[in-house]
Design goal:
Layout: H1 2-6, H2 8-11, E1 21-24, H3 28-38, E2 43-46, H4 51-55, E3 59-60, E4 65-66, E5 70-73, E6 79-83, H5 91-108
Parallel strand pairs: 1-2
Antiparallel strand pairs: 3-4, 5-6
Length: 109
């Protein structure tokens, strides 16, 4: 998550025409505390039970957790990019993500 924070302006158009939601099966109080302490400029959502993760194929039933799936959803509501799993240690993952976000933002204009 630190990479998202540190590259927020580049990856997510500085938040202009982009909404970043981080979804986890952690409780909302845990997520809120963590987000505040780390100064994340985006929203965390709690997915207790994995309802959202199941809808998007990101829920791991064996461990009861949402896995590191990353989706870019275009302005028309369609999923325009999927990284499953998102490989946060691979620099090319961020290059690909930035391109996917820019493509989705450009489609709106």
């Amino acid at each position: 998550m630190d990479a998202y924070r540190d590259q927020y302006a580049t990856l997510f158009n500085g938040g202009k025409d982009v909404t970043l939601l981080a979804i986890s099966t952690d409780p909302d109080t845990t997520l809120a505390s963590w987000a505040r302490e780390a100064k994340y400029p985006f929203t965390f959502l709690s997915d207790l039970g994995g309802t959202v993760g199941k809808l998007y194929g990101a829920f791991n039933t064996k461990y009861g957790l949402d896995n590191r799936t990353l989706l870019v959803i275009a302005p028309d509501g369609t999923v325009s990019y999927v990284a499953a799993p998102f490989r946060e240690v691979d620099p090319t993952s961020y290059t690909d993500l930035a391109a996917a976000v820019q493509k989705a933002v450009s489609a709106k204009q």
